[in-house]
Amino acid sequence: MAAYRWKSFFEDEDRPEKPRRYGVTEVRGPHYSLFSQNLLQDVFESMGQFVDGLKFTGGSHSLMSKSYIKEVTDLAHKHNVYVSTGDWAEHLLRKGPSAFKEYIEECKQMGFDTIEIDVGTLGVPEETLLRYVRLIKSGGLRAKPLFAVKVNKSDIPPNGDRAFGAYVIPATRTSELVEDVGLLIRKAERCLEAGADMIMIDADDICRQADSVRADIIAKVISRLGLEKTMFEASNPNTSEWFIKQYGPRVNLNVDHSHVMNLECLRGRNLGKNHASVLGSSYFLV
């Protein structure tokens, strides 16, 4: 049992040891700047017990050599950290149906554990989306669909007909986005039924800033999908604090690697523990 001066993982504390089903902390990897192996190693060696997953944000893995990616995934696995792709699978569709199967196999060979699918960008019929989820699962990997609260207006069934699974005549695509939480939830539920392991909720329009969090939408999503099956992007420490205060340490969050220790302190602090003596008051939000 791994133990720290101020932290141990027990069921009666905030959450158990890795691998965890809840209270997952997924860190964002390279995107706007280079995320070197040295930096990753420092993060894993100093905070590895608090990091559950590593996500290659924005399809950044498509710009790296396969050998480099394999070294990164091997390093992550050494510290019991799963590795997820970013929203890149949807860019393969123009190459034809077989390209997605090849992508799954390639991800498996490079050491990825999870494939993320950006449902909004994908723009395919619901049954096709579910087929992709099943393909990922049959390939031995975890599936993590990414949903946004705003959807293309043409994706909403006409005349209020929401009997998903039935054939609906495709509508002409538009550029107009509308908010439809019900559609998000129902599609996410069908993805979970098809075998999806986690539903990622995009921060845009929901929780990009702590002072404009859509608490109503978040509450609806969690009440229908469950806390263990949903993960939210927390763009900054203030947003992370909001989630911990509202839903406790067991909420699943995707954060920047520089926010890991702050988040872990917040998870413990929510239970009445004071870790300020270890890290200093600058880690805590007032």
Automatic annotation (TrEMBL):
Which Pfam families would you find in this protein's record? ComA
| SUPFAM superfamilies reported in the protein's UniProt record | (2r)-phospho-3-sulfolactate synthase ComA
Superkingdom of origin organism: Eukaryota
> What's this protein's family per the entry?
Belongs to the phosphosulfolactate synthase family.
Protein name, entry field: Aldolase-type TIM barrel family protein
Species in which this protein is naturally found: Forsythia ovata
